[in-house]
């Protein structure tokens, strides 16, 4: 086959394989302070449940350099990858970040007989205050109670948004609901940093509210994982102890009275 015809076939094959690249959604632009860490969630379709996933660095999916894979290696230097096939999310964690880590990266699913499916994001590592950040990426709540997340951003005049990742990626600019949980949003100025704070309060949590969310402001996004646990029960156990030797020696009746202690579990 002529070389130019072979090239055309390769291009057509690649374009056909990329027709559903939106099936691996993630964040688009993340800003992290130098020395910090970041966890990136990459969602995927049910049909990719048993596929190999990998994290790739570079501006193009064709020429990017593989960093870690879910088959091998799952850890490379300061980068690790894990795959939750039940939730259909694979996550990549990068630690001890430096400005040299700033680049384009890809969440990619490996496919047989087709071009790999992936989506690009940009990581910016800065010695200054990040464009958008949170106190912590992992937040835990209890069924029926509330959880609070604070998102900090510096862009003047802009308003932060709170979104749920996956399921259409619905976002809130004002208080409302995300798949039923009531969400209250407070936008205010941080006097200390002269920046802005978006305070998110999710009320009456349910187990199904466990998952990945994101703060968004302009092009910047920051993923936040919320885990909702069942409320623990408290059981009181009363124990009785008695000084038998004191009773046998004929000491006062007070010494023979059992003492009571409560143990809470």
Structure overview:
It is a single chain. The protein has 265 residues and is mainly β. 8% of the residues lie in helices and 46% in strands. The chain has two helices and 21 strands. It has helices at residues 3-17, 244-248; strands at residues 29-33, 38-43, 53-57, 65-69, 75-76, 79-84, 89-94, 103-109, 117-126, 132-134, 138-142, 147-153, 161-164, 171-172, 176-177, 182-190, 195-203, 211-217, 220-229, 236-241, 259-264. Strands 1-9-8-3-4 form a five-stranded mixed sheet, with no helix packed on it. A five-stranded antiparallel sheet has the order 10-12-17-16-15, with no helix packed on it. The protein has a five-stranded mixed sheet with strand order 11-19-18-13-14, with no helix packed on it. A hairpin with a 4-residue loop joins strand 16 (182-190) and strand 17. Mean pLDDT is 83; it is low at 1-21.
